[in-house]
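seq:
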Amino acid sequence: MDRAITGHPFIDGRRVTAYLELFKPLKQDLRWSRRLTLTKELMPMIKAAQVKRNGIAYAAPLPVWEAEMLRMAARPPTLTLPLTGHGYLLKVLANKGEQNAAALEKTVEQQRQNRVVSVGGNNELPPVDKDLAEKLTAEADRKDRSEINHRMAGKAQYVKTLKTTLKPGSNHDPRNFN
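struct:
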């Protein structure tokens, strides 16, 4: 049954069917040709495990698709039926993708800064990528050395300038001022 609806052995056809019921007109059944068209629109995105919205591709693994289809089939109060397209589902999946990307970015940033993150009472240190830590440490050391060398070169140039301008007998020699 599942494969007949979706053409894919791992996609739960019952969840897709429950979602497709949201497209059913109020006083009649949803035509099979319409079901097929709606399913054909979804399958490439589901198989690719991503949603493209506003030119940005968001990760959307199969379990996320199925969970959102089931949630929508439960008919949240903000949903106006019958649906005319997949826009609401795609928007929800894109928002989840953005939230997941933001959470991942936050975790990476916290690891980069070597912060301890307590999540749900878990006081363990987050895993640290040793190669990344070594790379960041080496880069910080290079920047520090570069900054010190730059300062030292500036000081050496200043001293050299002072020595040449304050040579005994030069116009800038303080002993020549009367």
